[in-house]
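quick one, 312 residues, struct below
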Amino acid sequence: MHGMQLSRDYFMKVAYPLLQKEFPDLCPGIAAGLVGNGSECFGYDDELSRDHDWGVDFFIWLTEGDAGMIKPLQEWKSKLLDENPPEFMRTRSDYGARIGVLTCGDFYASLIGAREGPQTLQEWLRVPEENLAMTVNGEIFVDNLGEFTKTRKYLLDYYPEDLRRKRIAAKCMAIAQTGQYNFERTAKREDWVTLRTILSRFTDNVIAMVFYLNKTYRPYYKLAYRVMSSLPVLGDEVSQLLLALAETIGLDEISQGKHKKYISLICELIVTELKNQNLCSSDDWFLTTHGEEVQSTITDSFLKNLPTQYEI
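---
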């Protein structure tokens, strides 16, 4: 039992027929669905998700020309839920997302600050990646004009390629620094706190890299690993190796040997995929070499002239 299915069923079977009946002239221009914040929008809600901000709900999105109908539709929706309560009514915590009625442009502006999606490099750089992930997750139940879906499709086309390459280059450097270089040196010094930090940063950088290689926005950190595991490019292979890395909790020489093995295997997979995507051609095992090569393929002068290791 997932919140998305419950919300879709309620909207299509209960809400939409009444909406068509009570607002016949408005319906041809609306879109509706459940998108944004919440594990159900990524398809990973479970029994633990039901303690807050979970249950049946849906957005109604209007064109700018119908913005005057926001208040009447919000009142209609509240009345609908009161008179036709779903079995699992959505609860909302103090910090939970508000799900209501708004224009398509207002929805996108509320998450990414751009009504039709970022148009310039500067606009792309201002948007947190997890917010981009929230604009393209979930489901659209109806979109009669296609206006909401038009912006969604634009965002699904992903970052400008030069920006993707810059971020891949920086992640190559970060993965090399943490996993391929500093792990072994720190282990020899028996600096265990820093060693755990290195493993954590290595894991986070690898997860980010897999999302870039899949041209998929990375969600909020607590969902990132689970979503990454389902991605078609390296998702399954890397998730299993990261799990093995996390489950190797000892600090003895045998455990360190396992850590080094899993780090090496992950880096080999990344190098192979970089070459598959024609981002680099070197056979070097060290990801720093590949980061510099990816950086050299960037055409945008601003991004190309940044230090390769610079995270942007």
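The first strand starts at residue 31 and ends at 34.
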